[in-house]
Amino acid sequence: MSELPHPEHLSEALEAELVAFRRDVHAHPELGHQEVRTTAVIKERLERAGLAPRVLDGGTGLVCDILPAGAEHDGTPSLTPFLALRADIDALPIPDTKAVPYRSTVPGRAHACGHDVHTTVVLGAGIVLAGLARDGRLPRPVRLIFQPAEEVLPGGSLVAIDSGVLKDVARILALHCDPRVEAGRIGVRTGAITSAADLIEISLSGPGGHTARPHLTTDLVTAAARIATDVPALLARRVDTRSGLAVTWGRISAGHAPNVIPQEASLAGTMRCLDLDTWHAAPDLVHAAVDEVAALYRAKVELKYVRGVPPVVNEADATALLTRAMTERFGEDAVEPTEQSLGGEDFSWYLQHVPGAMARLGVRAPGDASAAPRDLHQGDFDVDERAIRVGVELLTEAALRG
After folding, report:
1. What is the DSSP string of 154-193?
2. Whether the Cβ atoms of residue 358 and residue 328 lie closer than 8 Å to each other
3. Could you tell me which residues are beta bridge partners of residue 54?
4. Does the domain formed by 12-194+312-401 have CATH 3.40.630.10?
5. In the chain, which end has fewer C-beta atoms inside a 10 angstrom radius, N or C?
6. For 286-301, what is each residue's pLDDT tens digit?
7. pLDDT tens digits, residue range 36-51?
8. Class of domain 196-309
9. 160 touches 63 (CB < 8 A)
10. CB of 313 within 8 A of CB of 179?
11. Residue 100 DSSP label
């Protein structure tokens, strides 16, 4: 099999290999910080391409440098800084409900967010760029980052950063599958493209009692219900509405019998917002709102606020680089504007240190407008695998231009 596709186009042989690689990873999903097999198969393929990947300090995930011909990297700062290409490698704890040959072989685990595609695209770009480097056609150093645990708050990117993956990096790029965008296209946006996402867990306690005498005790069921409804409403009046702050509950639990006021109740949900300044202020705002409502019902409250991720804020120059690269490979019609999402993405942590951008990689079958697209984080999520070639050629072109 040819290891060196033409720099302008991906070879059919390598494209077929990458599709098979994606299907293998898809069939063997691993949760965050457990990606042992995934790390091993990435490492083996990079080594076959003549590269020297290093497993990250946490034991899963890798970093791999590709240097121009004649360059040496001895741990000292590079004369030419790196362009980094990032992929996330973990799966989700949900069942795979598709009827396909590459369906997950692990019960209750699925690549339902496209991380198998992200991984394959960066791997493919690395193989192509390694060939170009051997041939003397790579103009600058490139670093591949295969990051664990994107789905685990506050994000495996922090593990990668602590492992030194951003040393000597001047800019970082990433792609994320988007089932709303057709394969062969990407969505781009300068500025914030995702939202902040934090986790809220609330525990309420009281003496309990009989439902005939709620005035003699702490009515935790009502207290929990009022927190669920009143806290989001309070917060909506304490921040600029343009910040898009939203608290949404995913779990509420209280009691076991219809005539017993329980001694414990709990709620859990997420706080999302579009604005970085509001994200910084959100913990204090949430604590104050919860305490106010709980006090009305004399409920004791413990609140666990888990910092998730800030918004991904795309740098203008990095976004322009992705746009130029995509236009060069696939034409001006292959790029479309995209809106800011309320989803969270731990790529944002890298952007706290270096400039960069994330684009949305179209994975919907072209012309398939009759049926609703499979959304992310659903058990039947799948992609049009032609998106793999598009992603590889896009990142390859960006590395040559960047």
Report:
1. T-THHHHHHTTTTTTEEEEEEEEEEEEEETT-EEE-SEE-
2. no
3. 63
4. yes
5. N
6. 999 999 999 999 999 9
7. 999 999 999 999 999 9
8. alpha beta
9. yes
10. no
11. S
Give, in order, the Cα–Cα distances in Å from 194 to each of 22, 246, 267, 346, 358. Answer: 25, 14, 25, 10, 10
E strands, 12-66, are: 54-55, 62-66
Closest CA to 57 of 140, 149, 131: 149
Alpha helices (runs of H) in 102-169, residue ranges in sequence order: 115-134, 157-162
Same fold, 12-194+312-401 and 196-309: no
Residue owning tokens 């362009």: 83
Nearest Cα neighbor of 128 from 38, 42, 14, 22 is 14
Q: What is the C-alpha separation between 201 and 252, in angstroms, rounded? A: 10
In degrees, rounded to 5, the angle at the alpha carbon of residue 239 between the alpha carbons of residues 349 and 296 is 110
pLDDT given for residue 74 in this prediction: 54
Beta bridge pairs of residue 55: 62
206: left (phi over 0), alpha (psi -120 to 50) or beta: beta
- Please confirm whether the linkage preceding 7 is cis (ω < 30° from 0): no
Q: Give 197-240 pLDDT, tens digit per residue.
A: 999 999 999 999 999 999 999 999 999 999 999 999 999 999 99
Q: What are the b/e assignments for 283-313, b being 16+ CB within 10 Å?
A: bebbeebbeebbeebebebebebeebbbbbb
Kindly list the domain boundaries of the chain, sorted by start residue: 12-194+312-401, 196-309
Judged against a pLDDT cut of 80, whether residue 387 lies above it is answered with yes
